[in-house]
Sequence to fold (160 residues):
Amino acid sequence: MSGLVRGLAIGFAAGAAGTTALNAVSYLDMVARARPTSSTPEESVKRLAAATGISIPGDEEHRENRVAGLGPLLGISTGILVGAALGTARALGWTPRTSVGVLATAGAALMTSNLPMTALKVTDPRRWSVTDWISDLVPHLAYGTVAYLLVASATRPPQR
Fold:
Protein backbone atom coordinates (compact mmCIF):
# COMPACT_ATOMS: atom_id res chain seq x y z
CA MET A 1 0.00 0.00 0.00
CA SER A 2 1.44 3.38 -0.96
CA GLY A 3 2.26 5.83 1.82
CA LEU A 4 -0.43 8.24 0.66
CA VAL A 5 -3.16 5.59 0.55
CA ARG A 6 -2.05 4.28 3.95
CA GLY A 7 -2.13 7.84 5.35
CA LEU A 8 -5.61 8.34 3.94
CA ALA A 9 -6.86 5.08 5.47
CA ILE A 10 -5.32 5.93 8.84
CA GLY A 11 -6.89 9.37 8.56
CA PHE A 12 -10.35 7.92 7.91
CA ALA A 13 -10.04 5.78 11.05
CA ALA A 14 -8.66 8.70 13.07
CA GLY A 15 -11.50 10.92 11.89
CA ALA A 16 -14.05 8.32 13.00
CA ALA A 17 -12.35 7.97 16.39
CA GLY A 18 -12.12 11.74 16.78
CA THR A 19 -15.79 12.10 15.89
CA THR A 20 -16.67 9.54 18.55
CA ALA A 21 -14.68 11.55 21.11
CA LEU A 22 -16.36 14.80 20.03
CA ASN A 23 -19.81 13.22 20.33
CA ALA A 24 -19.01 11.66 23.72
CA VAL A 25 -17.83 14.99 25.14
CA SER A 26 -20.92 16.73 23.71
CA TYR A 27 -23.23 14.13 25.26
CA LEU A 28 -21.42 14.40 28.60
CA ASP A 29 -21.98 18.17 28.46
CA MET A 30 -25.69 17.54 27.84
CA VAL A 31 -25.81 15.25 30.87
CA ALA A 32 -23.80 17.57 33.13
CA ARG A 33 -25.71 20.75 32.28
CA ALA A 34 -29.03 19.14 31.34
CA ARG A 35 -28.90 21.05 28.09
CA PRO A 36 -31.00 20.02 25.11
CA THR A 37 -29.56 18.56 21.95
CA SER A 38 -28.48 21.05 19.31
CA SER A 39 -30.78 21.67 16.38
CA THR A 40 -27.94 22.97 14.18
CA PRO A 41 -27.20 19.64 12.41
CA GLU A 42 -30.81 19.25 11.27
CA GLU A 43 -31.13 22.93 10.39
CA SER A 44 -27.90 22.66 8.38
CA VAL A 45 -29.35 19.75 6.40
CA LYS A 46 -32.54 21.68 5.66
CA ARG A 47 -30.68 24.81 4.55
CA LEU A 48 -28.13 22.86 2.54
CA ALA A 49 -30.94 21.02 0.77
CA ALA A 50 -32.70 24.31 0.03
CA ALA A 51 -29.49 25.99 -1.16
CA THR A 52 -28.68 23.11 -3.53
CA GLY A 53 -32.24 22.53 -4.71
CA ILE A 54 -32.24 18.98 -3.37
CA SER A 55 -35.61 17.77 -2.15
CA ILE A 56 -35.76 15.46 0.85
CA PRO A 57 -38.46 12.94 -0.10
CA GLY A 58 -41.52 11.90 1.85
CA ASP A 59 -44.42 13.46 3.67
CA GLU A 60 -43.69 15.86 6.55
CA GLU A 61 -43.08 13.11 9.14
CA HIS A 62 -40.83 11.09 6.84
CA ARG A 63 -38.86 14.19 5.80
CA GLU A 64 -38.30 15.13 9.45
CA ASN A 65 -37.16 11.59 10.23
CA ARG A 66 -34.74 11.68 7.32
CA VAL A 67 -33.43 15.08 8.38
CA ALA A 68 -32.97 13.74 11.93
CA GLY A 69 -30.75 10.99 10.48
CA LEU A 70 -28.94 13.19 7.97
CA GLY A 71 -27.91 15.77 10.59
CA PRO A 72 -25.65 13.44 12.56
CA LEU A 73 -24.40 11.83 9.33
CA LEU A 74 -23.31 15.28 8.15
CA GLY A 75 -21.23 15.65 11.33
CA ILE A 76 -19.77 12.16 11.02
CA SER A 77 -18.78 12.75 7.39
CA THR A 78 -17.18 16.07 8.33
CA GLY A 79 -15.11 14.38 11.04
CA ILE A 80 -14.03 11.56 8.76
CA LEU A 81 -13.05 13.97 5.97
CA VAL A 82 -11.00 16.14 8.34
CA GLY A 83 -9.30 12.95 9.53
CA ALA A 84 -8.62 11.93 5.93
CA ALA A 85 -7.03 15.33 5.28
CA LEU A 86 -4.93 14.92 8.43
CA GLY A 87 -3.75 11.45 7.42
CA THR A 88 -2.91 12.71 3.95
CA ALA A 89 -0.98 15.70 5.33
CA ARG A 90 0.95 13.37 7.61
CA ALA A 91 1.76 11.04 4.69
CA LEU A 92 3.05 14.06 2.77
CA GLY A 93 5.45 14.86 5.58
CA TRP A 94 3.57 17.16 7.99
CA THR A 95 4.95 16.23 11.42
CA PRO A 96 4.43 19.14 13.80
CA ARG A 97 4.96 19.02 17.55
CA THR A 98 2.07 17.24 19.25
CA SER A 99 0.55 20.42 20.69
CA VAL A 100 0.56 22.11 17.29
CA GLY A 101 -0.88 19.02 15.59
CA VAL A 102 -3.69 18.69 18.14
CA LEU A 103 -4.60 22.39 17.93
CA ALA A 104 -4.40 22.44 14.12
CA THR A 105 -6.58 19.34 13.88
CA ALA A 106 -9.11 20.73 16.36
CA GLY A 107 -9.12 24.04 14.49
CA ALA A 108 -9.65 22.32 11.15
CA ALA A 109 -12.60 20.37 12.55
CA LEU A 110 -14.05 23.48 14.15
CA MET A 111 -13.77 25.52 10.96
CA THR A 112 -15.00 22.72 8.71
CA SER A 113 -18.15 22.37 10.78
CA ASN A 114 -18.80 26.00 11.71
CA LEU A 115 -17.98 27.87 8.50
CA PRO A 116 -20.69 26.13 6.44
CA MET A 117 -23.24 26.63 9.24
CA THR A 118 -22.31 30.30 9.40
CA ALA A 119 -22.52 30.66 5.61
CA LEU A 120 -25.94 28.98 5.64
CA LYS A 121 -27.00 31.36 8.46
CA VAL A 122 -27.72 28.45 10.79
CA THR A 123 -25.59 30.11 13.45
CA ASP A 124 -23.58 33.27 14.03
CA PRO A 125 -20.51 32.71 16.22
CA ARG A 126 -20.22 36.48 16.74
CA ARG A 127 -23.35 36.22 18.89
CA TRP A 128 -22.25 33.22 20.95
CA SER A 129 -21.82 33.51 24.70
CA VAL A 130 -18.67 32.34 26.48
CA THR A 131 -20.58 29.19 27.48
CA ASP A 132 -21.54 28.60 23.83
CA TRP A 133 -17.89 28.91 22.77
CA ILE A 134 -16.72 26.53 25.49
CA SER A 135 -19.45 24.05 24.50
CA ASP A 136 -18.09 24.13 20.95
CA LEU A 137 -14.35 24.32 21.64
CA VAL A 138 -14.04 21.52 24.20
CA PRO A 139 -15.57 18.77 21.99
CA HIS A 140 -13.45 19.94 19.06
CA LEU A 141 -10.34 19.77 21.24
CA ALA A 142 -11.32 16.20 22.12
CA TYR A 143 -11.63 15.50 18.38
CA GLY A 144 -8.24 17.07 17.66
CA THR A 145 -6.53 15.20 20.47
CA VAL A 146 -7.86 11.76 19.55
CA ALA A 147 -7.54 12.17 15.78
CA TYR A 148 -4.05 13.67 15.83
CA LEU A 149 -2.63 11.24 18.39
CA LEU A 150 -4.03 8.28 16.47
CA VAL A 151 -2.56 9.47 13.16
CA ALA A 152 0.77 10.37 14.76
CA SER A 153 1.11 7.03 16.53
CA ALA A 154 0.07 5.03 13.46
CA THR A 155 2.48 6.84 11.17
CA ARG A 156 5.48 7.02 13.49
CA PRO A 157 8.58 5.47 11.97
CA PRO A 158 9.44 2.11 13.51
CA GLN A 159 11.84 2.31 16.48
CA ARG A 160 15.13 0.44 16.11
Observations:
- The mean pLDDT is 95.
